[in-house]
Write a structure and sequence with these properties.
Chain lengths: 391, 258, 376
């Protein structure tokens, strides 16, 4: 082959040139599709009179929302409606994540129990929950259970303090009294003392080897001091109870059925997945670790605490965080049962009324993306620090 | 040597005594009528084909396995379901596993000080001093602050030996300690074990390393199919095996070792 | 003391004996698993009491006290202590096919039967010529199914508008379409994410993380509302096509992560051996990497399918009628109004999804075991 030709063909076969060519091709394709899409979008939106800016943010919303953590009325703006929905979504996350974690760990431990019946019960629970669509669970709780409850006048009452009817669950609402300040102050002081005692006990153990029951002390201190303060200064909280007034219950803390159904469904559903994660994490710690700890003379409790659980937690944390994100994403199913979360209010009502689909969807997705990416970044930092250096 | 053998005969000073011990896994009769007395300072090597029950035997000594019939008395304490007794025995018996079983989330030093601090209630400074001494003795003091995953197999097993020694046990059990190691690291671990033996530690070692058995053991116990088939001092054991099964086993294993 | 007195040679073998009663067999099992401690015994008693109370009630509700045949809700209203299976039985055609015209329902059955046969062929480990099965399933079957289900004047099949499609048929259709199109797309994305070329890698990562970071409902809304905007007026996409597109996009991102896991677990050795043999990137990927990686992740893919099947319940938010939506519609029928109707309907739907998903999960676990054995 003459050198000139060899040089030409080798340039085409150069890996770097090819790589560059593929990338330029990809970018060209994406650019073409994107510009086509944008062009069409602009044409279509103009033709249908759809607003193209974000001006709608300050327009009057004109609809009511039955759960708002900040002030809102049908004269508020679409922007305010967004914040109401956003806060409602966060509220669900804040309530469901600890509850699901707690229930999930309990069921996970039950799955690991040496008692065969208990472990099978937990297995039935997780199998059923993991193979049933979340939407079906929500619809069941909302339609079949909560909506079938009697009206306010025939509310089911538990001790005349908690009421259940088709308008919601009514709990006593704590109302702070004068001694509340003392009470809270004492609780904080008790917690600080318990932590301080724990630190001091550890220091003492390092120096002398003697061990102290810090958990018991904390368990005694916090309720104990609180009880003393209550006895001396009087009850810190009064309770506003719901009472029948006309056709409705007034007062108390009202949890609308939509929220009750969503919380109940999300917690019971996600707990099943968390239980499996806990079980897998504990089982993944090799049994030799238990044996080595036992052979050293550590009894079961110490072995669990010092050897097995620290290793299990490192394995549990990443998938657990994934489930927390799922709770936030799954809360969007609120749109099916009318709970006013971000999707239901903003991507639902606001989008329908303003027809500003592109803007509304962009904002909604941006919110979820920010939440997801923040958690993912934190998780990566955690993994980098705590992942076990293995071979 | 002979004085320790004489000691072994005085029953109330026996380190470990198996009497009529049977064990079943489900319906599989895995230990059959084990009678064995291990004297203080005695070094026993247990060998036999796989499935003979030799690992099960030593795991019964610190109750990692339960026996269903007969009695096992360790250092004067009989092993029953009594948790307090089990813990007592485990404090005085150290064990080294085939797979090392070091705690991966703790440094080597922390692996060694964990049990002294939490079980013997030692102050941290004292525990670390003891651990450093023992890590130096097995010649890995410079690895003390590394994590198990960063050490070679031979180093990990020596760290595991140091960890067990930190509880100052009276008896050391070794369950195939070199079976998971690359050949060039087997010697360093066996040398460590030989040094330990020379200092008078009571040891039961399950192993295929016949060279080690010849040099270090006071008695060799040959097990097959769950029963003790032959027991003898190393020289007569290797040169004049009596039982048919012993002869068969030795012909297979020594043939390979050559 | 002579050495000889410590030596021992066995005279006779020990007889094998049966284990003591309390240490094996049913009693031993009960002692270890049910009554191993005081707390455990209490738990056992409590569980047994619970079962003894609940199980007969549930069984009676579902069988002996249930209404099996009726023509309207009256009988069910009278007997409210049992399930109203008559409702499900009567409504079965609607729950199965939606509003698909009765005379054409054979087309749905044929399309589903062919699909099932192809899937079994594809997933059966020892089946011959599985590459053909893959080609048929991923290339030929979609076209064939489209013609059959939608209809075409060329083949003399009357057109059935997608708005009439509904029920279990649509749920299965959505899940299968999701898998068929998201698997190739997911493989491309997974390869793209591992590509050394930065632009390709960036594009793949952005796509995957974007789709995985947002709720599925927002993807459906996006597909439903934005797709018509991004294409010229005259191309208005079919109303069922939009959620299908959303499902494909959503599933592709998760599939990509599954496949990427498989590619990573393959080990550098395979790549290096292929490169040493002089295989180009395309050949190496097609002949060496993908076949191994995909069989590694078959259990993961089946799990994705299960999740996808459950996610199909969400397409009703953009107006498509899946099985759950069909059930919701059926429940609203005034002829059948009654308190037990809703519970019966939801319980039946729950059983349906559970049996399907649990069955697939068991199958996936079985495959994992078989593959693990072969992989040694």
């Amino acid at each position: 082959m003459d050198p000139a030709r060899a040089k030409r063909s080798s340039w085409l076969n150069d890996q770097r040139v090819r790589g560059l060519a593929y990338q330029i091709l990809l970018l060209a394709v994406i650019a073409t599709l994107a510009s086509g899409a944008i062009y069409n979008a602009v044409v279509n939106m103009r033709a249908r009179g759809v607003p193209m800016g974000f001006g709608f943010w300050n327009d009057v919303a004109g609809f009511d929302i039955n759960l708002h953590l900040i002030n809102y009325s049908n004269l508020s703006t679409y922007g305010r409606a967004f914040w109401v929905g956003f806060l409602n979504t966060l509220l669900i996350g804040i309530i469901c994540i600890p509850l699901a974690t707690l229930l999930g760990f309990v069921i996970g431990v039950a799955r690991l129990s040496p008692n065969w019946l208990l472990s099978r019960f937990a297995l039935v629970y997780t199998s059923v929950m993991r193979n049933t669509p979340l939407l079906l669970l929500l619809l069941f709780w909302y339609n079949a259970v909560l909506k079938s409850l009697p009206g306010p006048r025939q509310s089911i009452s538990i001790g005349d303090v908690v009421f259940l009817n088709n308008r919601g669950l009514y709990l006593p609402m704590p109302v702070a009294r004068d001694s509340a300040v003392w009470f809270l102050g004492t609780v904080v002081a008790a917690i600080v003392s318990a932590v301080g005692f724990h630190v001091w006990a550890r220091w003492r153990q390092d120096r002398t080897g003697a061990q102290m029951p810090t958990v018991l002390v904390a368990a005694a201190l916090i309720p104990g001091l609180s009880a003393i303060v209550t006895a001396v200064a009087g009850a810190p909280f009064g309770f506003d109870l719901a009472r029948l007034s006309g056709f409705n219950l007034k007062g108390g803390l009202q949890i609308i059925p939509e929220m009750a159904a969503l919380v109940f469904g999300l917690v019971t559903f996600t707990a099943a997945f968390i239980a499996e994660i806990v079980r897998a994490g504990v089982l993944a710690v090799p049994f030799g670790q238990n044996e080595a700890a036992g052979a050293l003379g550590l009894h079961r409790g110490l072995s669990m605490r010092l050897v097995v659980i620290p290793q299990a937690m490192r394995l549990i944390t990443p998938p657990l965080t994934s489930q927390y994100l799922n709770i936030v994403k799954n809360s969007s199913l609120a749109v099916f049962i009318g709970y006013p979360d971000l999707v239901q209010i903003f991507a639902g009502t606001v989008l329908n009324q303003t027809q500003a689909a592109v803007q509304v969807m962009a904002i909604t997705m941006a919110v979820y993306l920010v939440i997801s990416l923040t958690v993912a970044t934190a998780l990566n930092a955690f993994n980098a620090r705590y992942a076990l250096n293995g071979r | 040597m002979s004085s320790s053998l004489a000691d072994a005969d005085r029953s109330d000073e026996a380190a470990i005594r198996f009497s009529g011990v049977h064990k079943w896994y489900g319906s599989f009769h895995v230990l059959r009528n084990i009678n064995l007395t291990v004297g203080r300072g005695e070094r026993i090597v247990v060998c036999g084909p796989s499935g003979s029950g030799k690992s099960t035997l030593i795991r019964c000594v610190n109750r990692l396995e339960e026996h269903q019939r007969g009695s096992i008395v360790v250092d004067g304490v009989e092993l029953t379901d009594d948790i307090k007794r089990i813990d007592e025995v485990r404090r005085e018996v150290g064990m080294v596993f085939q797979n090392f079983n070091l705690f991966p989330h703790l440094s080597i030093l922390e692996n060694c000080t964990l049990a002294p601090i939490w079980v013997r209630k030692m102050p941290r400074g004292e525990a670390e001093e003891l651990a450093s001494k023992l890590l130096a003795r097995v010649r890995i003091l410079n690895q003390a602050h590394k994590y198990p995953g960063q050490l070679s197999g031979g180093q990990q097993q020596r760290a595991a030996i140091a960890r067990a020694l930190c509880m100052t046990p009276k008896i050391m059990l070794f369950d195939e300690p070199t079976s998971s190691l690359d050949p060039e690291m087997v010697k360093e671990v066996l040398d460590t074990m030989s040094e330990l033996a020379q200092e008078g530690m009571t040891m039961i070692v399950v192993t295929h390393e016949m060279g080690f058995a010849r040099q270090v053991a006071d008695r060799i116990v040959f097990m097959d199919l769950g029963e003790i088939v032959e027991v003898n001092a190393p020289l007569p054991f290797f040169q004049h095996p009596q039982h048919e099964r012993t002869k068969l086993f030795l012909s297979q294993i020594l043939h390979i070792r050559h | 003391m002579s050495l000889a007195s410590l030596a021992y040679v066995r005279e006779a073998p020990e007889p094998e004996e049966a284990p003591p009663i309390l240490s094996s067999g049913a009693l031993a099992w009960a002692r270890a698993n049910l009554f191993s401690s005081i707390g455990s015994s209490f738990v056992t008693i409590g569980c047994v009491a619970l079962i003894a109370y609940l199980l007969p009630q549930l069984a009676a509700w579902a069988t002996t006290r249930a209404i099996w045949s009726a023509s309207d809700g009256a009988v069910c209203r009278q007997h409210q202590d049992g399930a109203c299976w008559a409702f499900v039985i009567t409504k079965w055609d609607y729950l199965r096919f939606g509003s698909y015209p009765a005379a054409e329902r054979w087309r749905v059955n044929v399309a589903e039967a062919i699909g099932a046969a192809l899937i079994i062929w594809l997933l059966w480990i020892n089946a011959p010529r599985r590459v053909w099965a893959a080609f048929l399933f991923f290339v030929v079957y979609p076209i064939l199914a489209l013609i059959l289900l939608r209809g075409s004047s060329w083949f003399g099949l009357p057109i059935v508008d997608t708005q009439l499609w509904g029920g279990i048929f649509v749920s299965l259709l959505t899940a299968v379409v999701g898998i068929v199109f998201s698997l190739p797309l997911g493989v491309l994305l997974a390869l793209g994410r591992r590509s050394p070329l930065p632009a390709i890698r960036l594009a793949s990562v952005l796509f995957i993380e974007f789709v995985r970071g947002v709720p599925f409902i927002t993807i459906l809304f996006m597909a439903n509302n934005l797709l018509p905007l991004f294409v010229p007026e005259t191309w208005t996409p079919d109303r069922l096509l939009r959620p299908l597109a959303g499902i494909v996009i959503f599933s592709a991102a998760y599939m990509a992560e599954e496949v990427r896991g498989g590619l990573q677990s393959l080990g550098r050795g395979q790549y290096e051996a292929a490169m040493a043999l002089g295989l180009s990137y395309a050949r190496m990927t097609a002949l060496v990497v993908l076949p191994q990686a995909l069989s590694l992740v078959i259990p993961g893919i089946v799990n994705n399918f299960i999740g996808l099947f459950m996610d199909t319940t969400l397409i009703s938010v953009v107006g498509a009628t899946d099985f759950l939506e069909a059930m919701n519609n059926a429940i609203k029928d005034p002829i059948w109004a009654g308190p037990t109707i809703m519970v019966t309907g939801y319980v039946f739907a729950g059983i349906f999804y559970f049996v399907f998903c649990f069955g697939m999960a068991r199958y996936s676990a079985h495959i994992e075991r078989v593959l693990a054995k072969g992989r040694k």
